[in-house]
Amino acid sequence: MKNDYLFKSERLGFRNWTENDLTEFAKINADLEVMEHFPKPLTKKETAEFIERLEDHYSKNGYTYFATEILKTGELIGFIGLAYQEYKTDFTPATDIGWRLKKSSWGNGYATEGAKQCFNYAFDKLNLDKIISVCTAQNNKSERVMKKIGMIKIGDFNHPKLREYPEHEKCMCYEMTKNQWQRHKYKTFQTKRLSIRPVVVNDAPFILELMNTPKWIQFIGDRNVRTVEEAEAYIKEKALSQLKEYGYGNNIIIRKEDNVKLGTCGLYHREDREDPDIGFAFLPAHEGKGYAFEANSQLVKNAKEDFGLKELSAYTLEDNQSSRKLLERLGFHLKGIGNLPNNDEELLHYHRLLDF
Fold first, then answer.
1. CATH class for domain 187-353?
2. What is the C-alpha end-to-end distance of the chain, expressed in Å?
3. What is the pLDDT of residues 268-288, one digit of tens each?
């Protein structure tokens, strides 16, 4: 049961609660800094009652404030999840999204990453129409997360459950609808000359052309995609499935002035790798014009700011000098020799921290 996750994000696992969570969760709820924007910290008995309510909520609604663990270590860091709220305001009844994480996990982007994956679960799996999120007027950290995940402020209000705690009573409410989330998570990135958007099935003719260029076959590999139908299948299987699960994936690079498709760049999740890796390819006619650096500089920035990533990897053949030079310009450093899953070919492994 401990690792029986309902769903996962890049670094986190989300599950229902068990009695074994009590000791660690009680420590979190007793931390004065964690509970700064709540009326008071909770005792161990109150935490046990809270867990019981969360389990009951899951049984009734199919979701809850999920017990949230770091996948790599199995460490319980608190909750990120969903709860149906019926207290009387202009915004309720509604399902809200919330988080409470132990202090040692702060500053790693877990709340942002987890909340985004909960949106995917809420809108794709549970088919909810909207999600709200509420915090006190003083809770700047939570409000920053709400903004970062694309929620829109819809009002201020006095929380009816906090009337006895005037210092916490004034709250704000943010909202995300299903349609807004679909637009937000598959957002288009802009640079001075380029528009960068997720690949779609209609890009199949372009992908077919790109994957059969000499450099693609030489440096990336022959994927045996020879027809538009095969390119469509490749996009559905390789690109869209990852995009739906993680919010990032392969992107088409388009020149703004004439809407010409130049190439691709993307962030790729590998099941047995800790960090996503960056990749790129261009049609021969569009190489040597600075498009690759322009597009991937923006992609590296978005990896941190929009997807909450802390580091990136990249893999390339030793004799792919243009790729190596670009990675170095992007701030990547050679880490050693590596390979991709299900491929024994030796590749140079580059790496960079997103610490800017």
1. alpha beta
2. 39
3. 988 778 789 999 999 999 999
